[in-house]
Prior knowledge:
By secondary structure, this protein is an alpha+beta fold.
Amino acid sequence: MSPPYENLAFQRKVTDALTAVERILAIEKKPLIAGDVDHTYGAKYELVNSVSNVAIIAYMNTLEKLGLDVGVLNAIDCDTPTTLCFDASTTCKFLEKKIVDVPLDTSCNETIETKSTGILGNTKTKRTSKVVQHIEEWHYKVETSWCVSIYSAADVAQKKVLKLRIGSTTLITQSKEMPLPKHKDHGPIELSLTWLMKQIDKCPQLTSNFRVNVEESTTKTPRRNTATQNAVDFADSMKVWCDSVSKFMSNKLESDISRRHNPAIPIEPKDKNSYLRNSFNLGKK
Length: 285
């Protein structure tokens, strides 16, 4: 569901954007907010069409970064439902057990007297010993793999993998109990691309053909019509998918593991997440 519309926040964002655009436009061109320009009622439909097509191309540019390039698009049958899928799995494997010497704040002072038959007599030396605690550490290798794929209809077995990444890190605990399951598959996060695929032309070049049909009986206003509502619904589902993937990355790959990382010599809290983040080599294909 779309968040509540906040007019003042929207106006500020548009004003900032227009200020930035003015720097690259010719002097005689001055961008304005649509509501401040004289227009006919029909122009509202053209504005909806224009903005929606810009959004669709922006979606496609984003998906291209995930691997949905021209070659994959040409292989998609737009007459069948199309689904984008994110799934992941984690494994946890025991590596080794270590004994770590951790110095304590307490110390022990000892005076040693050495007897001598020389003219200087006995000598005394003072020795300070630090108290050390022996702590057992269990080291585990945590590996995470995730992929983004696309498939048509219900043919999940024939899905096309768009992007695949594998990363690993060393998780240290002070307990012999496995901190994570040996293997866990995380449920797929899916997004229907059926509507989006029907809005684009793939040949000769990628273009967007969204348009509100003003002749339809269901078209009441530029906002209250089937085409615009479908566009809004897709934007909502796209946001939910992105948020869900982002939460998985931050909660499962960072926070969930970070809470269990407990070496004998503690890591500063501000360095703990950065340690795990840097350890995961998520760029490995």
